[in-house]
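Tip: read the tokens left to right.
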């Protein structure tokens, strides 16, 4: 066997040695390598400074210096001329009204990389946040004002002056000079796109939860003197996972917020309410997920839920959050609607006054359309155009009848209500006068018993019932809202001004009717609006009712704006959508090969409707064709010729010859 050699020397130290550190090299590594090279340095400095400020404000609250909601953190920046350098330089100021720093804390904690004054119940605690903040200066120039002291760095990492300040500042006010100009220009920021510094700073500040809670006072945050609101203020959250424990010291809350714009959401990670980082969820999930991590562990503990840079989750926390995100993306946020219907259907007729108003307005617009000479001419050019005009006139008569019937019903209801009120008042008056005919007994306060009974018998005002959300088009057009893919806040324009959309409902109805007539088919259908960011048109069958729907939000935002002044292009879009939905109406339900073949046949057989539908677009939607270059030249020639009133042929001859008039 091989024998192990044993050291037999005497255990007497010859010399004592220790680990030395190159401060400049270590500062470079901590300030530029730790957080990565492509990070937004300005946003990173604000994030770290806010974290330190919240802990300082909490300490000030414990010592009675600040009230529960008196915390304040402010970011400001600008550019100034530096005479000594003969150049313009950017500066950033980060200030709070927390506990502040004494010279002892500044020297032994702030100036030590890895040094910290945070306790076990504070977030962070790696002691390296000052590297992210101070490295924003290219030349290590900054001034820190706290209490009656100024701490000034003028470029030398090993020499920082302590001075007496002329004014007192409760808290810390740190001004960093010679910041890189690139940090104050536009740059790409996930979730914002190409963003300026104002947007990026508001994003970082608004992603926090700074409301007062157990152990933490409330804070207000400001950017360039303006208060920044929470990104999720006013939004309704669905709890996906609450108080899940990864170990004895760490818990996690996960909430989801619907995005009103329908875009792919992001995952925001916060540590005790303070924003740490965010990343895209991927796929087409239209929600933002907020992961709130609460831990009692020290930052130096191996089980700490975040990495040292706090740009990633770690350990069991990472695995748990990743699993929840995968489930949400797989289910396409079906968990958001577990206790609700996924979609809302509003097809009720509404109140009589609304029905009367909507149908009267639609009838008036139909009358104007039927008198439009351009439309009448184009309709007569189409096969079956005369029959279509007769159908339009019949529809106009139906609208008038519906309007007048609603008017008569409303007047009758008002008369009945007035009669009931009169009978009620008369019976109440008889009962009160009957009481008065008796001897007017009095109470000990001198008030007659009869008067008391009158007051008791007088009916109280009924509490006004809360108005239920109903169809803003009063049954003239159905409406269907998909809660998953259309935020309810975007319904406001349709309820505030429903009359604006009646013309689109009429144009859509008659475009579909034209396609049916051209095919020689007959079918009863209604029209409506589908509000869903993933759907442009829809065929809906509900019991015996068949509804052809179009997305007004998509049509107004995309089609009308893209083809402004080109009614023929808009007509082509309407024709394509009408052909698709009419194919469903004819009994082709599934989107299989049979349906696709029939849809192409319908489109080919009705392609001659483009010009009549264009006339419909001009008459109903007010989209007038832009004049051609030749028409503009002819107009100029007419203007120059004045009262000579030339013919079109003579104008064209002048134009072709190039004669200057």
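Filled-in amino acids:
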């Amino acid at each position: 066997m091989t024998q192990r050699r044993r050291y037999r020397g005497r255990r007497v130290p010859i010399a004592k040695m220790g680990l030395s550190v190159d401060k400049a090299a270590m500062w470079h590594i901590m300030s530029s390598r730790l957080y990565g090279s492509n990070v937004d340095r300005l946003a990173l400095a604000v994030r770290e400074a806010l974290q330190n400020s919240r802990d300082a404000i909490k300490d000030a609250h414990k010592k009675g210096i600040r009230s529960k909601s008196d915390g304040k953190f402010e970011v400001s920046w600008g550019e100034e001329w530096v005479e000594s350098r003969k150049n313009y330089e950017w500066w950033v100021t980060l200030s709070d009204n927390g506990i502040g720093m004494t010279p002892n804390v500044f020297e032994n904690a702030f100036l030590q990389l890895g040094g910290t004054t945070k306790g076990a119940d504070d977030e962070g605690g790696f002691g390296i946040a000052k590297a992210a903040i101070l490295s924003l200066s290219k030349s290590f120039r900054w001034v820190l004002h706290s209490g009656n002291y100024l701490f000034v760095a003028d470029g030398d990492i090993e020499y920082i002056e302590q001075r007496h300040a002329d004014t007192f500042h409760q808290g810390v006010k740190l001004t960093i000079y010679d910041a890189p100009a690139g940090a104050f220009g536009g740059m790409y920021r996930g979730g914002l796109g190409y963003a300026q510094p104002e947007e990026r700073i508001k994003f970082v500040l608004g992603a926090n939860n700074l409301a007062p809670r157990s152990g933490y006072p409330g804070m207000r945050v400001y950017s360039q003197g303006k208060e920044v609101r929470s990104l999720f203020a006013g939004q309704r959250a669905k709890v996906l996972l609450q108080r899940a424990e990864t170990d004895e010291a760490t818990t996690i809350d996960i909430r989801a917020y619907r995005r009103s714009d329908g875009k792919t959401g992001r995952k925001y990670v916060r540590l005790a309410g303070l924003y740490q980082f965010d990343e895209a969820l991927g796929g087409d999930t239209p929600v933002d997920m907020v992961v709130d991590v609460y831990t009692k562990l020290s930052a130096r503990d191996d089980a700490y839920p975040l990495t040292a840079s706090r740009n990633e989750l770690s350990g069991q926390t990472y695995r748990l959050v990743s699993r929840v995100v995968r489930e949400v993306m797989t289910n396409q946020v079906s968990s958001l609607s577990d206790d609700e219907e996924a979609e809302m259907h509003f097809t009720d007729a509404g109140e009589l006054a609304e029905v009367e108003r909507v149908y009267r307005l639609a009838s008036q617009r139909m009358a104007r359309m039927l008198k439009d000479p351009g439309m009448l001419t184009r309709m007569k050019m189409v096969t079956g155009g005369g029959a279509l005009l007769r159908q339009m006139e019949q529809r106009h008569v139906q609208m008038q009848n519906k309007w007048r019937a609603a008017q008569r019903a409303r007047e009758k209801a008002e008369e009945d209500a007035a009669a009931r009120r009169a009978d009620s008042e008369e019976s109440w008056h008889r009962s009160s006068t009957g009481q008065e005919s008796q001897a007017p007994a009095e109470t000990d306060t001198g008030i007659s018993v009869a008067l008391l009974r009158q007051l008791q018998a007088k009916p109280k005002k009924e509490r006004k019932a809360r108005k239920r959300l109903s169809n803003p088009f009063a049954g003239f057009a159905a409406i269907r809202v998909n809660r998953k893919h259309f935020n309810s806040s975007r319904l406001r324009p349709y309820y505030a001004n429903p009359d604006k959309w009646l013309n689109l409902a009429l144009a859509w109805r008659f475009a579909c009717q034209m396609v049916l007539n051209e095919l020689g088919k007959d079918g009863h259908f209604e029209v409506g609006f589908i509000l869903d960011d993933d759907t442009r048109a829809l065929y809906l069958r509900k019991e015996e009712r068949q509804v052809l729907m179009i997305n007004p939000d998509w049509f107004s935002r995309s089609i009308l704006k893209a083809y402004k002044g080109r009614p023929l292009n808009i007509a082509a879009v309407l024709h394509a959508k009408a052909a698709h939905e009419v194919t469903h109406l004819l009994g082709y339900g599934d989107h299989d090969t049979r349906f696709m073949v029939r849809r192409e046949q319908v489109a080919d057989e009705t392609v001659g409707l483009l010009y009549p539908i264009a006339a419909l677009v001009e008459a109903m939607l007010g989209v007038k064709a832009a004049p051609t270059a030749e028409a503009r030249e002819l107009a100029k020639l007419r203007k120059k010729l004045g009262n000579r009133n030339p013919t079109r042929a003579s104008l064209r001859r002048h134009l072709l010859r190039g004669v200057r008039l």
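The first strand starts at residue 71 and ends at 82. The radius of gyration is 37 Å.
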